[in-house]
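Support reply, case 0932

Customer input (verbatim):
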Amino acid sequence: MELDLAGTGFLLTDPRLDDHPIVYVNDPFLEMTGYAADEVMGRNCRFLQGEDTDEAAIDELRRAIADERPATVELVNYRKDGTPFWNQVHISPVRDGEGRLVHFVGVQVDVTARRAAAVAQRRSTFLADAGPLLDASLDLESTLDAVTRLSVPFLGDVCIVEEIRHDEVHRLAATGGDQRARRAVRPDDPLVRAVSSGRSEIVTADVWFDRPATAMIVPLKARGTIRGAVVFATLSHGRQYGDQDLLLAEDLARRAALAIDNARLHENLGTVARSLQQGLLPQRLPSLPGMDLAARYRPAGDGSLIGGDFYDVLPRKDGLDLVIGDVTGKGARAAALTAQVRHTLRTAAQYEDSPSRVLDVVNRTLLGERGEGGGRYCTVALARLELNGSTRATVCCAGHPMPFVMRRGGDVEPVGKPGSVLGWVPDPKLLDVTFELNEQESLVLFTDGVTEARTTGDQYGLAGLTELLRAAAQEDASAIAARVDRAAAHAGARRDDVAVLVARRVGTSAG
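Our regenerated output:
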């Protein structure tokens, strides 16, 4: 028969006989199931069913037989040796010349390979999609959330990430379960056991829910350290985990562990960078009679690298020095250079009688330490304000953007003249420029990160800053600094740090 050559199982059953027995089978059916003809003839087809046979598929076949109509299902059947296989079963009624039902014909095709290929493809697609999701952020909370969200429902009804801290198990993230929970460490806790052994397990336990659940527990191991585990659990009796499921879970867990560890390292790096950065800026601005002072600092990008921008306020006997600057580089090199420049500025400001002479000391210091690896450079704007009843101020710019004065009437004008970058040449161009800063007027010092912030391809620029300051003419120092900071932040991509220092005269101080 052609059906024999096609390798398709074919059988006939007789619904007129008790228990609807098989009355004919072909050789491919016997080869598919492993039975001999005399072992199946006269029996109902239910002998092929087993533990994992889908009851819904069986019910569909029963209804079709009762309704005398065709039906097609795919279900797990079992060979004589107990081996499961996926069987595509099609049944159809056979009638005699008078339309009476005399047989049901059954056609069976082993689709195990096709199903396995489809499952493998879905799993491959799942892992391919998981990679970008896990790598999308270096934020720890977002990474943990991505691990649990992408796992449900593909790997289970619930996904949980937990870690052991001292004598407690802490839940870090969950989808389908309680987001935050903790419990005491116990030796019989399956998660504690998996973390201690470093081996994955499939267990049935009630640790995570108010009823037993089947779960895969996979340790999260990255760079030789196991911090916790990810739990994939099913609350449905119809789903059972097997070895292939565990392999998939382990593959995902390896990727997740590395992503989580990277996020943790990034978080720690950001914490260290912020701590170091804070140490390079004044803890607080001094309170001086007749002056209103404010400052803002915003690091470039996500703040994980120490920036090169700095500012300082140095009180003097009859006034104060306002300093803002930008050193070359990022990270530890920038931190060391910033500390050196600030220390030199603070020292020189105590004995030098003009901003230009103070900056010349910084220049000579940087040149004196130039090594074979090249120089270290910085730009600085230094403004010296008198507080002895005078409104006079002096500014010197060393390669730095010129500060703006916000006049009482609303005008905004730059003060100073361009000068040389410090650390570049022995005889820098450093020019002191004297100007008046009257009561209710403000001096705004800033770094180029303010004016170089970009919107839709255009720099925010000096023109944008001028317009912003003109609109803030009547505001206090804190409000002006906040405006500049917000404008730079909202402008879009920040390739550089943003620092702004504002000094506003609010009265006169007699010497």
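We compared this against your earlier run and they match. Two observations from our side: The longest helix spans residues 243-279. The chain has a mean pLDDT of 87. Please reopen the case if you see a mismatch on your end.
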